Amino acid sequence: MYFSIIVNQVLILAFLAVIGVIATKLKVINEQVKNSIAAIVFNITLPLLIITSVTKIDINKEILQNSIIVFLLSIVGISLLFATGNLSKLLLKLTGKKADVHVIHTMFGNVAFLGYPLFSSLFPGGEGLLYAIIYHFSQDIFIWTIGVYTFNKHKSGSFKESIKHLVNPNTISFTIGVIMLLVGLKIPEFFYKPLYEMGHTTIYLAMLYIGAVLSQNPMLSAFRKIEIYILSFNKMILVPVILLVIIWILSFLGINLGNTARTVLVMQTAMPCMAMIVVLAKKYGSDDIHATENLFLTTLLSLGILPFIYFLVQFFN
Questions:
Q1: Which pLDDT score is estimated for 153?
Q2: 264 phi and psi, to 5 degrees?
Q3: Closest by alpha carbon to 128, among 316, 315, 313, 274?
């Protein structure tokens, strides 16, 4: 049953992205509108989705324990992606800006724009989204440190400035939501319903944004670049499988993750390239065209790979 859910959900998200592509081609969505959609998602709808989903959860010992393990294993997974990206960069003899984009895009996946809608549908109770947010928070730590440093290392930038990005509406909402969860506070129903419904518009707005990004450049060249296929294999198959093996080994040591936490953790690691990296590459003068190619091809491949990874997680359950 869940296998069909994930296939259907990925296809639905793909369909929504196609609407974004068509709207951009018809100039309904221009650059200003695209940037406004991203700002609305990042500053309004996504924080509301986070806080309403987290506070809806009924906390228990298992969820608390899983959350700690998910955070620690998220760090392990992202570190493995970083190491794999650097190794493949050397093997492929990539240099300069393309090498930087290759490493950063290997590390960071579309865990919010694609992950949040997917896990909200797969696990409606909110527990899956909680673990997805924890992974996202772990990823943010790396993005605004190693990520920005990699893009900005040839410029005179302040390391403190990149750290400031960790404090944003999403991390603030997550912190507030966790505090409310731990002390047992709930949002009054009168306020909860409109906030919850507005938060869930994130799904549609995020996919419109991804569609708009994908439509900006001719992407046929992506199919001819071996480095993108290697990136896709490392990011979406190799490292998630390694992480799944680590989780399997830990279970023999008495460290167990519930199926929801295990599924979210491995699938977040396997998400296609992060859309925001395209924006950061452009901002810091890196190879944003290559970043867009990475985003396009990995997102396309995810239609088949994500259901496969889900199947593997359930097989090793």
A1: 64
A2: -65, -45
A3: 313
Interatomic CA distance for residues 53 and 169, integer angstroms: 15
Long-range CB contacts for residues 306-309, cutoff 8 Å, separation at least 24: 306/6, 306/10, 306/118, 306/236, 306/267, 306/270, 306/271, 307/3, 307/6, 307/7, 307/10, 308/237, 309/236, 309/237, 309/240, 309/266, 309/267, 309/270
Tokens read off for 274: 């992060």
Low-confidence stretches of the chain (pLDDT < 70) are: 1-6, 152-166, 217-219, 283
Helix ranges (DSSP H) in the chain: 2-25, 31-40, 46-56, 61-91, 96-107, 115-122, 127-142, 148-152, 159-164, 169-183, 189-199, 202-214, 226-233, 239-252, 259-269, 275-283, 288-315
Residue 27 tokens read as: 């100039």
Contact present, 159 and 149 (Cβ < 8 Å): yes
Burial of 76 (0-12, 13-18, 19+ CB in 10 A): middle
Which two three-digit tokens encode residue 16? 């929504």
Alpha carbon distance 118, 23 (integer Å)? 23
> How many angstroms separate the Cα of 310 from the Cα of each of 72, 150, 151, 241, 245?
21, 32, 33, 11, 14
| Rounded Cα distance, 150 and 144, in Å | 10
Q: 């996919």: which residue's tokens?
A: 207
- Tell me which residue of 21, 9, 6 sits closest to 210, measured CA to CA: 21
The 3-state DSSP class for residue 218 equals coil
Full-model pTM? 0.79
CA distance 57 to 134: 14
